[in-house]
Structure to design on (518 residues):
């Protein structure tokens, strides 16, 4: 079984698709390319979603960890 | 009697169902797989609830501790 | 006379009923089972109140201290 | 003349009536029983005010310092 | 010429009239009696203003520095 | 070419006109007289703007750095 | 392949066009001239966007890192 400590979830998500919920309610979906100890993340091929629908394509995105509510691997 | 210090409640909740209230009012329900000292949590089989009803299924979710208002074991 | 320094109020409230006001305006009432230095609290038999009326029963709740506005012993 | 450094104002207010303004706009009036270095305060015989009128009586209240905007001795 | 480093402005304002803008938009005007390193301030003869008009008189007020947006000497 | 590291921009702006955007959306324009390591700033001849129009004149203003979103030299 | 750790993304973006999303929802687009360890950024030829359309031109902008939600290289 894959490890399930918080940073294991980040590590297992590398190169995989994740849904990110941000403070204020914005949601992004993309491929997680990297993270650091502050939970700053790099996503690639990022979609900005609204009510689950594609609102716009953002490509590579560097997200600040302190803006994140949750990260859900696809 | 089970211990009831704050981190004992987290520890006793491992592998059990919990309701999580987030800043901004969002609520999630899932099985608590792990936590760390910042109260970052991993939930599995997570439901996003709205007014107590299922809004969508989220699977595995890594929640940042600083977004949490309360954690209530089922 | 009971001591009245801030953490004495928490200590005196152990096993007693308290009203908690949270940032965002939510209010909870329950029996205080424990606290830690961050004012993280464990409540038992917790009621979620709305305008002073019972909205729902939450049982055991672990509250993050940084979400708390005030604690009022019953 | 009484000292007027910030913590002198807290000290002079002990056992006296104070008006407290909280983040979010809530106001409380009560007798200041104690404070600590984080400006956590204990009020007694506390009134929750709305537009300067009594909304409800709260008795003893432990207020977190980080919720406070200002403290005004009566 | 008076010094104009940030804390010089506070120091020059002692015993003078200042306008204070708070997070959330509230404005106060009063005589600055003291400050500390956190920019906690004591004002005397404080007016709570609304759209520049007097809303109520508050007398002595201890303001938490983390609630302040700006301080403008009269 | 002028240096363009973040604090170089502050330093180059000394005695020049700047537009400041604050959290909550308020905008000020004035002459930057000083700054410190927290990005606390002193502005002189400060205008409070609304939709780019002068709303009121504020004279000298000490701005807390944690209220600032951006600083744009004129 | 270019490195993709969070600060590599910042470094690779130097002298390139970036889209910045700020807390509160404001968006800016400009050329990234510099950054520091707090993610304070300097943008040049900055456009303030509204719904993806140009709202106004801001020229050089020093952005505080704690206001940033994400940075997306063009």
């Amino acid at each position: 079984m894959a490890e399930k400590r918080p940073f294991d979830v980040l590590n297992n998500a590398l190169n995989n698709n994740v849904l990110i919920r941000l403070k204020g309610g914005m949601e992004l979906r993309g491929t997680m390319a990297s993270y650091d100890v502050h939970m700053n993340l790099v996503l690639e091929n990022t979609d900005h979603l609204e009510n689950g629908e594609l609102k716009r394509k953002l490509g590579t995105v560097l997200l600040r960890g302190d803006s994140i509510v949750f990260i859900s691997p696809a």
Remarks:
- Chain D has a mean pLDDT of 95.
